Amino acid sequence: LPKVPAYQVLRKFNTFVNLVEVAALLGLSFVSSKENYEVHKGCFILFMVCSEVYMVLTCLLLKDNTRQFVGLMEHRAYSIKKQLTVANLFCFMVALYFYYRHNAYCEPGMYTAFAFMEYFIVLTNMGFHMAAYYDFYHYQLTVTEFKPSFSNST
To answer: What string of H, E and C letters represents the secondary structure of the chain?
Structure first.
């Protein structure tokens, strides 16, 4: 991103939102709704809000800088992220609709439909983050064993 102060602030905010998203996801993983419904619900809401903000803001920040993409892989990553963000937002709205109908009318099958949409929300979120593969396509991560060299001169 350009070294414009507004972009730098938004980049830092987006990083913070992503960290909160991950922390909320950890909370969801460790606290079940049967164990502590209020904590689980809070983590879910925090995860969803931060997830949506992160995905949308990432796409908006990248949208203004598509001319600076140097390769096909960066364009592919951006395209995939846009598509998955739209799909995620759609799934989230549909899930909210089912959750509302479940709570407002206690209709049979509404909570099941809500839970089903949760799977699509999770899959589109995972796909969004896995698109980083294309962002780092030209990089190689090498993990090696570190052996310190000690001199044993006595």
So the answer is: CCCCHHHHHHHHHHHHHHHHHHHHHHHHHHCCCCCCHHHHHHHHHHHHHHHHHHHHHHHHHHHCCHHHCCCHHHHHHHHHHHHHHHHHHHHHHHHHHHHHHHHHHCCCCHHHHHHHHHHHHHHHHHHHHHCHHHHCCCCCCCCCCCCCCCCCCC
